[in-house]
Amino acid sequence: QLQLVQSGGGLVQPGGSLRLSCVGSGYTLDYYTIGWFRQAPGKEREGVACISSSGGGTVYADSVKGRFTISRDNAKKTGYLQMDSLKPEDTAVYYCAAESIHFCSDDIDGADFSSWGQGTQVTVSS
Question: How much of the chain exceeds pLDDT 70, in percent?
Answer without folding.
Answer: 96
